[in-house]
């Protein structure tokens, strides 16, 4: 895209997208962050609404959009199996070679992913999304840096069965310290914030509940800024 869309116009578009309730985008801030990413990648900001979903505050690039980007960049895919039990494909790109990726329903069960209704209703589509994401990240990761598919994002909160190890005394840090640490992580981007959140105890998470939206917005803004700096 040759002409950059002014920030003021992006903000107006973002407000309209958020108000529409479409694409899982709930706030104008989320829409702005995604639109800035799209513009930094050379696309019109409105493309962000078409290609991305926001799920539980996390940006997710649709599997079809990820595959389309891969093919537009010279990548090729050949499907060798496409059933509810097994999806497999060969991915190739001039810059990354060739690899065959497969995901079976048994693998998904072992990973603790199949407990959700969407896996029971659409196993083939969920396996396909996993294959696309892993194949493209392996052969040509530049297409999907720091971005996951909606299917992957939906599984982030899936937790394996835990064995009872008894009780232990947990000493929580003070709320101010937890917030300050979370802020310092948020400026590193969404993935860093997500990984940090996993390390927190239930008590520490409760201390941050009122600040979650702020932390997510800061992380998404950091992602967008990083993308713009790299593109420039």
Number of helices: 12
Largest sheet: 3 strands, antiparallel
* Low-confidence residue ranges: 158-163, 167-173, 227-232
Average predicted local confidence, pLDDT? 78
Biggest sheet strand order reads: 3-4-5
Strand content: 5-15%
Q: Look at the helices and sheets and give the structural class.
A: alpha+beta
Q: What is the string of helix and strand elements?
A: HHHEEHEEEHHHHHHHH
Helix content: 40-55%
General form? globular
Question: What this model shows, in words?
Answer:
This protein has helices at residues 7-20, 28-40, 47-51, 63-72, 105-110, 117-121, 123-139, 150-155, 175-186, 190-199, 202-208, 212-231, and strands at 52-55, 58-61, 76-82, 86-93, 97-104. Helix 1 (7-20) packs across helix 2 (28-40) and helix 10 (190-199) runs antiparallel to helix 12. With 232 residues, it is α+β, with helices and mostly antiparallel strands. The protein is built from twelve helices and five strands. It is globular, with a radius of gyration of 19 Å.
What's the gist of this structure?
With 232 residues, the chain is an alpha+beta fold.
Q: Could you list some keywords that capture this structure?
A:
5 strands; two-stranded antiparallel sheet; 232 residues; 13% strand; globular; three-stranded antiparallel sheet; 54% helix
